[in-house]
Amino acid sequence: MKIKIRNILLLLITANLHHQVNAQSKVDDNVQQARLLVTTFANELKSELSSAMLAGGPINGLEVCKLRAEPIAREVTGSSAWHVARTSSKVRNLNNTPEPWELNILQQFEKRLAEGEDINKLEYSGMQVVKGEMVFRYVKAIPTGGVCLACHGRNVDSAVSQKITELYPNDQATGFSLGDIRGVFSLSKTVDN
Ligand code: HEC
Q1: What residue ranges of the chain have pLDDT lower than 50?
Q2: Closest to 151 in 3D by CA, of 168, 138, 135
Q3: What's this model's pTM, rounded to 2 decimal places?
Q4: Strands 123-130 and 82-87
């Protein structure tokens, strides 16, 4: 996995060196980079979570989710201009509370899913002005998979549930079913022109 992350960093650097004249192709480049970051981040997180759960069950997995999400995000983005985070309309960690525009995207994704769109294709990209700077934003839906239900499902084991409440007294992130939108990856990158 380390090698894979290094490749991503190389790709991000090369992509930045490649000066694109056309604004549309710049946006496309950013979307490509964002998709790659999401895949790498999601795979790494899932692989650490699965190993931890195999070794010590969901209680052990809780620690990975709590302690590893941010360091893995930093590892994946390296020294690039990207920032990678997760949010949801029902958060476990209040630090992941969505901004109003993210909540709006989450609601649009819910609507598109209800209308029959493939959950794996729910993504958004666009530019925003944040504190006077142009920021490229990318958001992608995170499907609820089978492995997620042990900690986010409708019938969370009581020992796990107890531990969750201990760690997150304001937890809202249970009651999900297979195929629901658990949340989104939310990426941003300051654009220097
Ligand atoms: C072992 C328990 C466990 C499992 C299994 C688990 N999670 Fe979580 N999840 C957590 C914990 C704990 C947090 C809070 C992490 C933090 O403190 O930032 C969390 C946070 C999240 C968040 C960030 C938003 C929020 O609610 O704070 C998302 C999105 C998320 N999980 C998605 C998933 C998905 C998708 C799966 C399945 C692939 C999954 N989780 C499996 C325990 C788990």
Answers
A1: 20
A2: 168
A3: 0.90
A4: unpaired
**Residue owning the nearest CA to atom 17 of ligand 1:** 66
- Name residue 141's beta-bridge partners: 184
Q: Which tens digit of pLDDT belongs to each residue from 77-126? A: 998 999 999 999 999 999 999 999 999 999 999 999 999 999 999 999 99
- Strand, coil or helix: 169: coil
Angle at 192 between CA 187 and CA 193, to 5 degrees: 120
Ligand 1 neighbour 152 (Cβ under 6 A): yes
Ordered by start, the domain boundaries in the chain are: 2-190
Kindly state if the Cβ of 183 falls inside 6 Å of ligand 1: yes
Ligand 1 binding pocket includes 156 (Cβ within 6 Å): no
